[in-house]
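Quick one: structure tokens for this chain, please?
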Amino acid sequence: MTTITIDGAAHALSPCTPSLAWELAELAGKNPAAAQGAALGLCLPPGTCPVAPIARAHAVPLAQYGREVIDYFLSRKVGYGEVRLAGAQALELAVQPCLTEAEVKAAAGFSAPGGSSTG
């Protein structure tokens, strides 16, 4: 199993998301601060809400990849799943799949194709 070192402690990356685990391991070698928040949100039990505590604990690193998105997750109290974010590194964070990709991109300031969304 792949592990990532965060703040001096090793954390296992679950094999349930092998491509993401690999990407995070690669990213960790280049920019540990950018990878640390996302790594801890992987593959937690359904029904948990990994993003909120991770975002609070690692607000500075996560802010590099879209603080607006993290704030949006917190406001929606999202939970488990994966949504690919369009951004500088196209990171994936553990978020509730009820958020569509268009919603996530809109929260990040990207325009969604096919018109504006209603809320």
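The chain has six helices and four strands.
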